[in-house]
Amino acid sequence: MAHRITLIPGDGIGPEVTGAAVRILDAAGVKIEWEAFAVGSEAYAKYHEYIPKELIESIERTGVALKGPVTTPIGGGFSSINVALRKRFDLYANFRPIRNLPSLPTRYPAVDLAIVRENTEGQYSGIEHEVVPGVVESLKIITEKASTRIARFAFEYARRVHAIHKANIMKMSDGLFLRCCRDVAKDYPEITYGEHIIDNTCMQLVMNPYQYDVLVMENLYGDIISDLCAAFVGGLGLVPGANIGADCAIFEAVHGSAPDIAGKDLANPTAVLQSAILMLRRLGEGEAADRIHAALEKTYKEKKHLTRDVGGTAHTSEFTDAVIANMAPVAAATQKQPAIV
Ligand code: ATP
Prior knowledge:
Blueprint: E1 3-8, H1 14-27, E2 32-36, H2 40-47, H3 53-62, E3 64-67, H4 81-88, E4 93-99, E5 112-118, E6 122-132, E7 135-141, H5 144-157, E8 160-165, H6 173-186, E9 192-197, H7 198-207, E10 214-217, H8 219-232, E11 242-244, E12 249-252, H9 270-282, H10 286-302, H11 316-325
Parallel strand pairs: 1-2, 1-3, 3-12, 5-10, 8-9, 8-10
Antiparallel strand pairs: 4-5, 4-11, 6-7, 11-12
Bound molecules: adenosine-5'-triphosphate.
């Protein structure tokens, strides 16, 4: 039976990279009926809604979406669609595995860590107001409920967990986050637990990323640390992500809409493809996920059809063609990857 999956192509490079992933999943023989929807400015022009209710109903029905990036206006305009969707479906855990593709040389080989980012509150609560002219207050919301469940998610996944914080300065908010992590840690005595302050974490990561396994942190810290860690494995074009809630999940790359290269057939679709691989594992399509991953690795190993961001000269479409050409027939799949979401 075909899987029904909601597709949000997004804007900027979104339609190009999600289009590539859809082509590759199709070539892998995964039966999918996509329900595609525009969001943001494009949806507003059509439906007078930034997030059409048809899209919400589709995700409620399918429980799973593959999403491209959506541009958020800076310093004004409508609120982030990305954040709104995470909140609407209570996708409390943003899981971002940082792993090298073995055949792509980078400054740090064989990195294998994961960022577990709280996805619903912190500085992303969007509660800001002007107290008096010239003074603005922005609220950072930290709750025991959200902190405890994100800590539990991290401990369920990890062998070693570090909670990342700034509780020396934000003693109440980050202090609460840390207390929740410590309480959850007591339920997992077999897992090594540590705590690092966010600024020190940046230095520690660059000095020695191998000291970490899973890093759990509040929303904004997770956003910043994700981009830093993306650089270890070849940049934003590579790192996937999953937004996970109790009832549904939205899979999307860490990167944004990259307006500088949008519409030029230059974007690297690897990050969204790796997000789609996470999605396939969740859907029980492990064999197809393994085959696509093997084809991706082969394409990187050959080095002939890589995009510019990783040192090649190929266009998005040429890279996509190469991954499809490198896909083994169904019976030949051998490589097994662990299920991670
Ligand atoms: P956001 O704040 O929306 O997450 P960002 O500020 O992190 O976005 P991006 O849009 O992700 O910015 O782009 C940052 C840089 O990385 C840009 O120079 C862009 O061209 C590059 N980049 C991002 N994604 C890709 C990709 N898939 N392929 C190639 N280059 C990319």
